[in-house]
Amino acid sequence: MKQFSTLFQAIESTTSSNAKISAIVNYFEQAQDLDKLWCIAIFSHKRPKRSVTTTLLRTWAAELADIPQWLFEETYHIVGDLAETISKVTPANKNKESKTLSDWIQYIIDLKELAEEEKKEKILYAWSALNSDERFLFNKLITGGFRMGVAQKTIVKALSRLLGQEENVIAHKLMGNWTPQNISYQELLLTEDQKHNLSKPYPFYLAYALDSDLQNLGAPDDWFAEYKWDGIRGQIIKRDSHIYVWSRGEELVTHQYPEFDALIDIPDDFVIDGEVLVIKEEKIASFNALQKRIGRKAVSKKMRTEYPVKMMVYDLLELNNADIRDQQQQKRRLLLEKLFLGISSEMPLRLSPLVSFSTWEELHDIRNNIRKKDAEGLMLKRKTGPYKTGRKKGDWYKWKVDPMTIDAVMIYAQRGHGRRANLFTDFTFALKDGDRLVPFAKAYSGLTDIEFREVSQFVRKNTLEKFGPVSSVRPELVFEVAFEGIAESKRHKSGIALRFPRIKRWRKDKPVSEINTLDDIKKFLSSD
Q1: If you write DSSP's letter for every residue of 121-145 in order, what string do you get?
Q2: Which pLDDT score is estimated for 373?
Q3: Do 221 and 77 belong to one domain?
Q4: 359: which strand partners?
Q5: How far is residue 27's CA from residue 8's CA, in Å, rounded to a whole number?
């Protein structure tokens, strides 16, 4: 654990990507294989499942620190991070343990089957056996809230440097549903034949937002344009009579979408990239409808009938066991279209259509009317570009429509986390409905650090009531709230649910009397 703690401190103390890569390489040159494997898993968000509730951890920490529970909770709200709060309030270590990272993770995994008193005994011993930094990391692991200041591509670059393998090869090897409990370091990274894992997806290619004039892209004939669909990005894999569905977050979600089991009847094997959407009677439903299907362990026949899903397919990555990602976009598109010639319209797949245009001006006009196509913008793809790994600039751009906006007043504020634990950064907004204010959206992004500090000062001076970390405030501050979509909702008092609400700007120039009404925002329902 001491080695991993040293790595963590090295990463947290620098903003240099090269310094972080060097620290990771240095760790891997010293650590044992199982520790390396768990380190990769942590970076890849494959942490062990939580074996102790945070309620019990907070109770035990308060007892060990000999402070009342209310004081611990207040401290937690101010610090903003449970793992850090526990590591700070609990006494210095009395015992010393030389367990490795993988030893402590196995220690955490073994807690799951123990009775509550046995769990408590084990946790208290761990807290007493680790120094403050190591205790913090132990708490991060056990609470499941581990975040390190390292992007996935950084660990890929470090492993590429360490092993002398290409980055795209490393990135592909790290995909899939492996865990340190079902694969070895040797099998994951040093075995050339990866075909034993039929379910392994490819790293997703991510588009950059278009941030320059269309003319800078060159000739329109060099580009494909497609609709940007508002669904769940995913890959469907058909290999050796098996179907696997992966989300962009590297979650295997096959069981959530049993409709795709029918693809087993397609003769070809393939890996396709596209957007999972609710499509009923060939009409694309809102993202709110798709949310009814997300995260369900079991999907009833009624749910499948009311919210049937299909994938809108826009790329082909593998065909009959051949990786074709290096082929040009136009070649992959031809192969995809050819594949669809043999796919029945009864299958839960739809080929995402290309948008016909001859000039950039024409494409600009098409984008301005894109909501009528149930899309949220356009995708621009260079015809000669390959399918890359991660967010690479130059060949794929997303060009979303401008968001819808509404002016609203802040009525609740909640403290942030981490470095913003002493600021109020999460806000609830309301609109007028006659003589009352109705909450309709929450947002936590869009302000500068200086603005967050200004708003926090206002909250402290104008709090009406407190509910733990949440404060009810005088309805005086007006903000312009932006959002991507809107749908009717029976779960919310306002009767609506917004897609990606965020703060566009603080309207210091506008009094509360001039905020919008609930009727105003509902007008977007017919135009969305």
Answers
A1: HHHHHHHHHS-HHHHHHHHHHHHT-
A2: 85
A3: no
A4: none
A5: 10
Query: Which of 97, 120, 143 marks a domain boundary?
Result: 143
Q: Which residues are catalytic?
A: 228
DSSP H or E stretch at residue 25: helix 17-30
Is residue 369 situated within a structural domain?
yes
Model confidence, pTM: 0.74
Please report, for residues 331, 415, 489, the alpha-carbon distance to residue 384 in angstroms, rounded to integers and kept in the order given: 8, 48, 44
- Does residue 50 surpass a pLDDT of 60? yes
If DSSP states are collapsed to H, E and C, what string results for 231-242? CEEEEEEEECCE
Residue 424 belongs to domain with CATH number? 2.40.50.140
Residue 423: which pLDDT band, with cuts at 50, 70 and 90?
A: confident
Take residue 131 and report the two structure tokens written for it.
């120094």
When pLDDT is averaged across residues 115-144 and rounded to a whole number, the result is 90
β-bridge mates for residue 153, sequence order: none
Tokens representing residue 350 in the block: 């739809």
Q: Dump pLDDT digits (tens) for 230-262.
A: 999 999 999 999 999 999 888 889 989 999 999
Residue 212 lies inside a defined structural domain of this protein = yes
CA distances from residue 22 to 7, 82, 156, 165 in whole angstroms, order as listed: 10, 30, 12, 16
Answer yes or no: is 155 within a domain.
no
Report the alpha-carbon angle 275-370-294, nearest 5: 30
Q: Do 501 and 428 lie in a common domain?
A: yes
**Position 182 confidence tier, pLDDT thresholds 50, 70, 90:** confident
Length of the chain: 528
Residue 392: domain span: 205-400
Same domain for 107 and 120?
yes
Better-scored residue on pLDDT, 322 or 49: 322
Residue where a domain terminates, one of 400, 419, 454: 400
